[in-house]
Amino acid sequence: MNQYLFYIEGLNCERWVTSKSESDAHKKLWKNLSDVEQNAVVQMECIESKLLKPFDEIWLSATESIRTFSGKVPEADLKWHWDEQSRTVTPLVENSWLLQLDNRLPIPLVINQEYQIKAGVYHRLIRKDDANDLVLKIVRHE
Description:
The protein has 142 residues and is mainly beta. It has helices at residues 22-31, 35-40, and strands at residues 2-9, 13-19, 43-51, 56-59, 64-69, 86-91, 98-101, 107-108, 115-117, 123-126, 134-141. The strands form three sheets. It has a five-stranded antiparallel β-sheet with strand order 4-5-11-6-9, with no helix packed on it. A hairpin with a 3-residue loop joins strand 1 and strand 2 (13-19). The longest helix has 10 residues, at 22-31. The two termini are 30 Å apart.
């Protein structure tokens, strides 16, 4: 999901909309305007967009952070990806999540166990239907 900021000429305001695409966000915004507002609109222009990440992150230092993934994050938001830096990932809470590295079967994430993910290796998290929040310590390596 992404967030899109629209400037609405005629109403002279800005509104953020969360959606999968700019055109869907435009339709959603238009649909949520009242008839009076729609009649006043001259033009709606997307002036900013940002990718929403499927986690909250607290930075502990320049190389260490704590990431929290909601147990309700949509599976579609947990995409295959790779990172530019190698990292060590350590689950900090009991959980039922899985980690899958490229060309490997998914493995359960065990509390306090360290998992090494090398730079450039595709990987993803898998959330089970009954999952609780996942809290990870991430240490990035140069």
